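Format notes (please read before filing issues)

Several people have asked whether sequences and structure tokens are stored in separate files. They are not. Every record keeps both together, in the order shown below: the sequence lines, then the token lines. Line labels are part of the format and must not be stripped during preprocessing.
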Amino acid sequence: KLTSLALQPVITPELVQGRAHLKCAYSRPSSRLPLQYVVVWSRLSTPGKKEQVQRDTTLQSFSYIEMDGVNLKLGDTVFCTVTAFTRDTPEQQSLPEESKGFYAGIKFLPESLQIAEDGKEHVLTILSTVPIACPGHDDSCKITLQLSTEDLDSQLLGPPDVALSACQVDLLQAPCSESSCAAAALTATAVTDFARDGNRISRIRAEPVGQRDLLWRAYTPKDVKVTVRDLPTGNCYSFTDPHIITFDGWRYDNYKIGTFLLCRSVSRAFEVHVRQWDCGGHRSATACNCGVAAR
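Then the structure lines:
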């Protein structure tokens, strides 16, 4: 009887006659017997549960299935299972061998981010594991994704803690290699908000826009979760008859009258001026804060 033949099925994406397909290829064993293959395509319908979508019997060492947006949609994880049998004695079958799951759709790498309010830029790659078709002559071969950010902590009103370097990215058609058929990169930065608001969770969403193709029109890729680590904010003070405490905790007084530069950033356009006026009695000269200007 046929035992394990080491068929090792592998799923790869391919454009066939301008339509997105998946190909299940397997190694043809060096058996003298003329073999036929049964290829069963399935998709993950719920976690841990598979649903059959197509069954082929073939003499070839491969089988195709179309990403049609009906039987197979974007966002599906797809498997192919291959069984070999001899044409003369079809009851003699090899053990079925299953491919690894192939995720068909748009992926973010990394799938989640942990960043801090330190101004650093973090590269986020968006890739499509399925080939991008050109449905009409007037369309360039690309998928345009509209990007947005949202704060998942509904307790806090205000802008999300994440800023992106682009609001839209284009995934341009390219030859598929290692299950990437189109890719684009952007950067995400944590917003330095000078608020002690704790670690917050935001998400980045991507939605295809302006698509006529049914396959892409009904698809919203999975969000990227971004955890933003809150960093303590520096504080400096000038109060009453100006007692000054600097960012690093030095304390001194400035009793003079005039306009002074209280604080200036060396890395960005930010400075604070204070104006001090006489507020002392007859015995001692003292000045008090009476005006402030910030840029």
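For reference, the curators noted about this record: The helical segments are 214-217. The first helix runs from residue 214 to 217.
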